[in-house]
Amino acid sequence: MKTGEIVAGIMARDNFLLEKLAALEHEQWVCLMKGLLIFTSDWDDEPDGAEIRNEDLRRWELRMKKSYSELSEEEKRESRMFASRVMTVIMSHMAEAGANPVTGEEE
Asked: pLDDT (tens digit, 9 = 90+) per residue, 43-86?
C-alpha cells in the first residue's frame, strides 16, 4: 500500500483527530489575528500595498471570539483543510520512517 493510500484511509477513519487538529488550527489563527490586529492598529496610514477592508476586520473579530465548536460549518471546513495538511505530513513522515501510521510501531 502506498503512503498516500495509508494517509487517505487514516484521515477518512479518524475524524476525531481531524477535528482536534482543526480546533488547534483555529486557536493558532486567533493568536495570529490578534497579533495582526494589534500591529495594524498602530498604523497612522496604510503602508504601501496593505489594505484591510473594514468588513474583513469585523468578520475576523467576530470569528476570533468563537471557540472551534461555535464556528459555522464553512469556518470549520477552513480549519479542517489546514488540519488535514498537518495529518498528511505526520502520517507521511511515519510511513517513510517505516512506522505503521495507525499503531506507531515499526513494520
From this structure: 555 555 456 677 878 888 899 899 999 999 999 988 998 888 88
Model pTM?
0.60
Q: What are the C-alpha distances in Å from 94 to residues 7, 70, 73, 85, 90?
A: 10, 33, 30, 14, 6
CA distance 100 to 12: 16
User: Please, are residues 20 and 73 in contact by the beta-carbon 8 Å criterion?
Assistant: no
- H runs (alpha helix) in 1-107: 3-13, 15-41, 54-64, 73-96
In the structure grid, which three cell numbers stand for residue 36, read together?
495582526
Angle of CA points 86, 90, 96, to nearest 5°: 140
What's the burial of 80, exposed, middle or buried (CB within 10 Å: 0-12/13-18/19+)?
A: buried
Domain ranges of the chain: 3-44+51-96
